[in-house]
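Narrative of activities, Objective 1.

The group set out to show that a structural description can be obtained from nothing but a protein's sequence at a throughput compatible with the screening campaign. Below is one input-output pair from the validation batch, recorded exactly as produced.
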Amino acid sequence: MDQNIVKNKWSEIRDQIDDWWEELTEDDLDQINGSHIQLVYVLQERYGYSHQEAQAEVEKRITGMPGGARKNQDRFQYASRTPDSTLGFQRFDQRSSAM
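Output recorded for this entry:
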C-alpha cells in the first residue's frame, strides 16, 4: 500500500477512520496526524492487533476508499524482519508462498 495515501488524504479520511475504529480517541487521531505507521501502532494499542493484523486492517480500509486502490497489483508490502528478509520488504507473492 502507498503509505502516502494516509498522509495526503488525512483531512478527508480522519472522520472515516474515526467511524471505522470507534475506540480511537481525538488524542489518538491527533497523534496519528496522517502517519501511516502511527495509525498501525495506535491500532495495535487500542485493539490488541499484531503488527501484521493492524497493517492488514489499514490496507483493507484505505485501499477500499475511492482513490486508494493501487493499479499495480505487483506491489511490495512491509514484512517483519526475518533472516530471509534483511531489508524488511518482500514481494507480496513471495511473502504469501513463504507462509
